[in-house]
Amino acid sequence: MRAIILAAGLGRRMLPLTRDTHKTLLQVGDRTIIDRLIGSLEENGVTTVTVVTGYLHEQLERHLLEHHPHLDISFVRNLRFDETNNIYSLALAFEQIDIDDDLLLLESDLIFEPAVMRRLIECDRPNVALVDRYRMGLDGTVVTVSGSDVITQVIPASLQDAAFDFTDKFKTLNLYRFSAEFCRDVFSKLLRYYTQNFDNQCYYELILGMLVYMGQARIHAEQLDGETWAEVDDPNDLENADYLFAPDRRRRHLESSWGGYWNHELLDFAFIRNMHFPPDSLVSQMRAYLPRLMENYGSAQSVLDRKLAHHLLCRPEHVVLLNGAAQFFPTLRTAFAGARVLVPSPTFGEYPRAFPGASVYDDRGTFDPDAVARAARDHDLLVVVNPNNPTGTTARTADVVAVLDRLRGSGTTVVVDESFIDFSDEPSLVPLLEREPRDGVVVLKSLSKTLGVPGLRIGYVFSTDPAWTARVRDDLPVWNMNSVAEHYVESLLKYPSELVSSFERTKLDRDLFAEELRVLPAVTAVHPSGGNFLLVELGPDAAAVATLEQRLLVEEEILVKNVSAKFPGDRRLWRLAVRSVGENRRLCRCLHRLAPVPEEVVSR
Question: Mind listing the pLDDT tens digit for each residue in 143-160?
Fold first, then answer.
């Protein structure tokens, strides 16, 4: 069996990485792309390889001859690589090799585990294409498959219009095995004829599609079943491939990116969102509106504030809709630069980043209004996070009001962050302040997590102090919110009962999750929480906890957030987002199976 690897192209989408380096010589993990391809062939007993080269051909050919001298490697050069496409490269290969054995056809921008190639070689059909279920992030040619696993239609990207339905389609891996007879008598002849007389700048899949359509080719679709593979067309693909094939670096990838996880099959217990909202009907509406929303600018800030005020049942002049609550922090930092600031400890990173020299009051699981008010009297700014993140500690709203009362007239501004208040049993300050206005009080809220759409970046500042709302508005650009997020906000008025129900369901899920975590031998404590997350304490062995986190990520594709560094002493703490009941139970099962049992538990 001979393999043909098409590697002539410039790799324009990979620029600037391919300006001086051949695309296949880029590293994924500790190996180049081409070495991974050759290694998978060799591991499956394929030692005769023809490589079609073109761009930087000397660089690639020298690498292959130096690193794989024991293999039978030959080269076909496409000197017109900058003006032709892979149809021309394959036609050249067919012209210059003897087709006396079955052929494996590989694109050079693929990375896969050896089991993928094994599936192709061991399939008992003469002509085989490897396919996988279409998923987000893939592009290029897709196929339809019959009930008997035969390809019935080959659809290149050029025929996938705006209304194209991918739900029943399969993505080709551009990994094929063809019989010598098919290549010699059918495929190569039509390929050569079309290239010479019609078009040498298209893809060879066009010819396969013609043969399938005319009934001249019967190509079996061998569907993958969870095997790992990646197509590397651009630098983003390269990053994603490195995540897949260098598992020891996965946590570094995730922690440095702070999001963008849609390219990974990841069960994320680190970032927090409402799992019961939006309802399916709202998602369907957003999907239908998306083309129009993408064509339109968002509205002026006054319109945005009015739309949110309808949802909050407050006056528009009291609220400022933000592109995520984080948008408030530059204003807050500027307003209190060099001032005396008091924040809870621990709390999430925005406040320590904004005020690295701030004084702190300890969160030990309860909120003491007397102690907080006393500590705040000689400060310019007091921050109350209710419920606090990552502890979940929840203050009674009446106690927060008591602090406001004791600080009235002191000159201390109070920012109350209520990003998770809806998941507690405490009411928001917003209705109270709407009835009884107060100067020097600002309520901040991240809505993205509450509304289940962290990717849309929605938050707000509420204050009955006109100086504060004016200050925030002065710092905003003319177009402060994208049209997709704005439409989502205006749609909330249609789903009030569904939103309230989502909070109640989340509370039940949180309480059940806490019960299931508490009985695990590796868990020493689950702290009470008023948010849609739980603070979980584990055994004292730091190395064991680090190993557990790595095994969860690599073996189970589960990400957890370690918050130990936020707490004094030598404690091992995770903050776990509350996800669906099934996902929460999956994490518990994995912890029960993977976590070492502490010695004190064994001794009992």
Answer: 888 888 888 888 877 778
